[in-house]
Every structure is written in structure tokens, then in C-alpha cells.
Amino acid sequence: MPEVGVQNAGQVLDAARRVVVKIGSSLLVDSASGDVDKAWLDAMAGDVARLRTAGKAIIVVSSGAVALGRRRLGLSADARLDEKQAAAAVGQSILMQAWSAALTAHDLVAGQVLLTREDTERRRRWLNARATLEALLTLAVVPVVNENDTVATEEIRYGDNDRLAARTAQLARADLLVLLSDVDGLYTADPRRDPGAIHIPFLADLTPEALAAAEGPNSQTGVGSGGMVTKLMAARIARSAGCSTLILSGAARAPLSALERGARATLIAAPGTPMTAYKQWIAGSLEPAGVLVVDDGAAVALARGKSLLASGVSEVRGDFDSGDCVRVVGPSGPLGMGLAAYAAGDCRRIQGRNSRDFEALLGWKGPGVAIHRDDLVLTS
User: What is the pLDDT of residue 153?
Assistant: First the structure.
């Protein structure tokens, strides 16, 4: 994605290649009936289809399961945690049926992805979740992500799914996170209480002043559970992953089309790119758990930007799991570090071998590389 400056928010959406769109309960669920707002959802699905046609990968983070399940079960908004979990179990199927029907109308396939906080904050589970998302996107599926509320043992929400959306953007290495709200971005004060509040179209950084301006929930519908502060905290997570954030109103149908027509929004810029941020994390935040020694041919291939093939690995040192950081050493010394695609024992079984032999050697079909180039940082 090009460097973000003070520019039209629609241009930022147009430039993005991979977009995560977060939709809250207050937009998706009609507050009067408690049912899915089908007209709004159909229009949103049209936005997703249009962006897909433009060549963008789209991931949806959708709230609504608990609200829909509460209505079906006749539960009140102040239900106990176990009742909310039951509501989530019932409402999740209703939610996915609605998304599937809306996307099918545009010849798109919806894929349900349920995550917990551990899935997005523990590295090995994070890598597994990322692999699933990548497979869905490769297969032209629209992932519809929600928190796995039915097994939550603490607060039922992740942060109105705003933080989950930001973590999903990290997982997917998205370059744009779109947070649909019930207001058209950030203001200097709550515009419903202060008629003199001024809209803020662009933030180059998240300052204490910006966070102070966002204090207090904006949603007045009784359906949603978050406010502007949670959106700015999500934007902070996204920024750390090189992902910019747009906060805009989802009240109108087809809000992304409205954005491209000039609807007002707040853009929170991110420094660098998702890949740069990800590789900085590998290079600076992880302690190597082992070593892969490679031959001359592999060293040359790595210098040309290739992945590390098992055929080029001559020695495996240490005891590590798949997803752990390992140092890569060539005949002339250290070359870099990366995330191992296989645990140490499996690496030893496949070292020096062609990927077509992996399934016979391991008894299962795994990645075709020892370290994928996206998970590799060269230091020499």
C-alpha cells in the first residue's frame, strides 16, 4: 500500500490490497425487531463483492451472534455469562446463515472463522490461524470472523470485536482495517453532546489528546457494546502491524461505496508496511530456539529472495516446535532468522529431501518449505 498522507479516505481504500472490515451488532441487528437487518446486510455484501471484483482480498469481522441468540432464546441484555454463551451458540448459526445467503447472491462463498484471544496472542496458535485465513483467501472464500464466545471464560466480548478485528488484520497482514461505527469518525468531542465538535479527518499518530477526545461509548442503540476508545485502541494494534485504519459510519447502506463517493471518515495512518512490521517483529522480538545449517545453493537462493527448501538444509540443531524462531546459518556464517515450518524432529526427517517426499517421510502433508520467505529475515 502506498505511503499514507493527508488524502481522501476513498483513495486509501482504493489503494489497499487486503482489507479487514469490522461490523458491529448495532449495524447488523435491527434494534427494534432483534433480527438481522437484511437490507443493510445485502448492501454490505454488494460492497464486499465489488471490492473483490477489484482484486482485493476481503475479511469480515462480524458481531451479532449474541444479540441474535438472545432474541431467539428470549434472554435479556443483562443475561448471565453462561446464558450469553448459550446465546452465542444459537446466534452464531443465524449470523452465518445470513452472511452466507447475502454473499451467495453475489456468487461468493462465506467461511466461518471462530477465534479466541489465545488464537491471536499465542504465537503457535497465531500461525495456525494465519495459515487458515491464507488458505481461505487463496480459495477465494470470504472469511467471516467472530470471537468464539461459546467457550469464553472471561468477559464475553473481545472489545466489541474491535481488538479482534485489529488482531485479524495482523494475522492476515492486511494493509487497511475498516471499523464501521455509528458516527463518521473521530471528533474533538462527542458531536451528539457538543454542537461545536470538529471532525478529525486524519491522524498521523495516536496522541493522548486523540484518545481523550474519544472517551465514552458512542453507541446509543443498546445492541452494540463498544465505543470510540475501543476503535482507537484497535487502530493502535493495527498501526504496530503496518496497517492503517479507517473509522466511518456504517449507518447508510453500502457504506464502503459511500466512502468512495466522498463520505466523511477518520484515517489513522500506519508507519511502514505490514510486511516490514512483521519482519521487524521476527528480527527483534523473538529468541532463536534452534539452528538450521544450509548449503551454498540454499544460501544463494535465500539471497535472491527465495524460501528455504528442506533440500538445502544440511543440519538441524536444537529442539524447537513449528512456528518457533530459528537461526539460519550458511557455510560462511549466520544468514538470518525465521519461523520454522516444522518442528526439529520433522526437520531432521526431511532435511536434504525434496518436498514431494515429505508425506511419505512424515505420514502427513505439510508445507513445501522449511521456512517460507515471508517468515524469513536475512541479516547478512
Answer: 54
